[in-house]
Amino acid sequence: MTPRRPGPLRWLWYALGGRLPERYRDWVLHDASCDTWVLRHFIRAMVQVSVVAVPILLFVPGPLWIRGSATLLGILVGLQYAFWFLDGSVERRVRRAGFPPGAAQAARDALHAEEKAAAAARYAARYRSGN
Q1: CA angle, corner 13, sides to 85 and 27, nearest 5?
Q2: pTM here?
């Protein structure tokens, strides 16, 4: 069961780095540990980058192709940093929601524990049997 989601304005606040109220604590852990957690992280990163990119694209004087190129390069650099700090950023969000350090990774590991155990059993059966 998916925990209660925040509304659009609260999610925007959360995406920009704000803390959600205690009643969304379980949703923050779900957000950091579900199968689409990486995609969710990059969507939050795009929201953060767009706060700077859109005004540059719209209001800085100059040719559109220069503003567009600068905006695109800024977005790419922002996404690169989002990739580099993926785990730390997600773990920080979970810690701010009141969970202990490493809770997001532990939840992701628990989510896929059966799959990993089955894969390990298949590996052991194939490569340790001597065939």
Answers
A1: 75
A2: 0.81
1-55 pLDDT, tens digit each:
678 899 999 999 999 999 999 999 999 999 999 999 999 999 999 999 999 999 9
- Chain CA centroid to CA 68, Å: 26
Element (H, E) at 123: helix 113-127
Radius of gyration of the chain (CA): 20
Q: Residue 117 has which token pair?
A: 């155990």
Spatial separation of the C-alpha atoms in residues 74 and 80, rounded to whole Å: 10
DSSP secondary structure string, 59-99?
HS-S-HHHHHHHHHHHHHHHHHHHHHTHHHHHHHHHHHTTP
Q: Where are the domains of the chain?
A: 8-127
